[in-house]
Each structure stands twice: as structure tokens, then as C-alpha cells.
Amino acid sequence: MKIATWNVNSIRTRLGHVVNWLTENPVEVLCLQETKVVDDKFPQEAFTELGYQAYIFGQPSYNGVAILSKLPMSDVSMGFSAILGEAVAEFDAQKRVITGIVNDIRIVNLYVPNGSSVGSEKYVYKLKWLSILHDYLQALLQEPNHLLMCGDFNVALEDIDIHNPKGRETEVMATDAERFALKAVLDLGVADVFRKFTTEGGHFSWWDYRAASFRRDAGWRIDHIYLTPQLYEIAIACTIDKTPRKLEQPSDHTPVVVELSAS
Questions:
Q1: Burial classification of residue 200, based on how many CB atoms lie within 10 Å of its CB (0-12 exposed, 13-18 middle, 19 or more buried)
Q2: Which residues neighbour 221 within 8 Å (Cβ) at sequence distance 6 or greater?
Q3: How many angstroms separate the CA atoms of 39 and 66, rounded?
Q4: Is 74 exposed, middle or buried (0-12, 13-18, 19+ CB in 10 A)?
Q5: pLDDT single digits (tens) 210-250
Q6: How many domains is the chain built from?
Q7: Which of 37, 63, 117, 230 is most open to solvent, judged by the fewest CB atoms within 10 Å of its CB?
């Protein structure tokens, strides 16, 4: 079973790229971020023709998440408040969280806020959002299902996840506070499956559009897949597919794929 995550930076702009990628890489589940479209304008038909059901939580122009699945998905919910209640409903105004169960695997698809700049209101919001994610994941982990959490986390957890970590303490997506907040979430019991297979640096999933970053391979690894222990044990591969980033008008992110054995 293969499950992938991809920040497509507008599903309608990148529809051809996604359809072609799925045709060549028919994963069972694809988690999308930054779909940037309201639900009734999501291009579902293009994916239905490929055998996928689309589960969507979108908004115009910004944010938006979706799960495309070839397998039946149950217990689908959107936002933090579906699990944690109305006390956190304000954080669902931005459509960033969707989850459902496939083959006894709870899939959590996330688009973590960027944070804009260190010390800004958006940075404070990001840290609060990550603290709510901690409570959200803690609640989901009480279920009997295995759990896979993936998406664009907008955090490079280690210096080897950045092409040049010099000065990273003052750069959003790499500050100690962001790393600490995400690690507190992971400490609940999930592990970075990419690092099971690749321990060295120099592997990235996002390249800024500016300054010829992709050509220079000046990237960051901020798109992650995390697994609970039993899933981690049966993972047989996790790869970053750079091919879509080479296309004309690409997303600035590229897919990350995990393969789980049948056992």
C-alpha cells in the first residue's frame, strides 16, 4: 500500500500535473495541501475517472486540504473542532486539517501554518496551532487504529533538512520554538519514516520559486510522513519524488511517498 503527500499550491492550476503523476504513480491514497478552492469547485471528476474518491475541506485562494483515496474511507472529519470541540473552532476558519480511516489506518492530512516571520502575529498563531495539534493527535491516538500523519509541516526539524542552516535561528520554519513545538507532537508516539531509510542530509521537498533555488538544489525538507510504531515497522520505503518540480509551472513542493508492506 502506498500513501503520498503533496502540497500542490492550487489544485486547479496544477490539475494536469497531479492527474499525470497519479497515472504514473497510482498510489492508494494521496493527501493534498494548499488546494486553494472551495469544495463545490474542486475538480473531483478528474480523479473519479482515475478511481479516486475525493474528501475535501477547502476555501478560496488560500489553504485547503483534501484526501484522494482508491479505498473506502470512513469516519472522515474536518478541522480540529470535530475532535476537540468548539473551544478550538476559531482555528478551523483556515482549512488545514482533514482525517479519515482507510484499512484500519487513521490518516491525518495537515497543512501547518507557515508563520510568515519570526515574532509576527502569524508566527504566534503557528505556535498556538501546533499546541492544538498536540491535543488533537493525543485524542486520535486513543483510538485502536494505526495512525499516519502527513502533510506540509512548514518546519525543518533538523539542520540537515536545510540546504544552508546558517542563521536558521532567526528564519521562520527552523527556529527552536517551532522545532520544539513539533517535537512535542511527535513525542506522543509517531516517527519520521523518511529517516528510517535515509539518514543523510541533502534531501529536500520544497524549493523557493526565487533565486533559482531548485536549479541550485537550495531546498528544505518540510513535507513529512509520520507513523505509529507498528506502521513504522512495516514501512518498506519512503521517497521524495523530485520529478514534478522539474515541470513547467510546478508547485514549489514535490510528493513524498511511503510504501507499507501487506503484513
A1: exposed
A2: 156, 161, 162, 194, 203, 204, 205, 206, 240
A3: 10
A4: exposed
A5: 999 999 999 999 999 999 999 999 999 999 999 999 999 99
A6: 1
A7: 230
Residue 221 in grid coordinates: 525538507
Domain containing residue 32: 2-260
Q: Above 70 in pLDDT, residue 263? A: no
Decide: helix, strand or coil at residue 56: strand
Are 22 and 30 contacting, i.e. CB atoms less than 8 angstroms apart?
A: yes
For residue 182, give the 3-state DSSP assignment: helix
pLDDT of residue 262: 83
Q: What is the pLDDT of residues 123-168, one digit of tens each?
A: 999 999 999 999 999 999 999 999 999 999 999 999 999 999 998 9
Look up the CATH number of the domain holding residue 216: 3.60.10.10
Q: What is the predicted pLDDT for the residue at 46?
A: 98
The DSSP secondary structure of 118-167, one letter per residue, reads TTSHHHHHHHHHHHHHHHHHHHHTTSSSEEEEEEE-----SGGGBS--TT
Which helix (H) or strand (E) is 24 found in, with range?
Answer: helix 15-24
In this prediction, residues 58-83 reach a mean pLDDT of 98
Whether the Cβ atoms of residue 37 and residue 58 lie closer than 8 Å to each other = yes
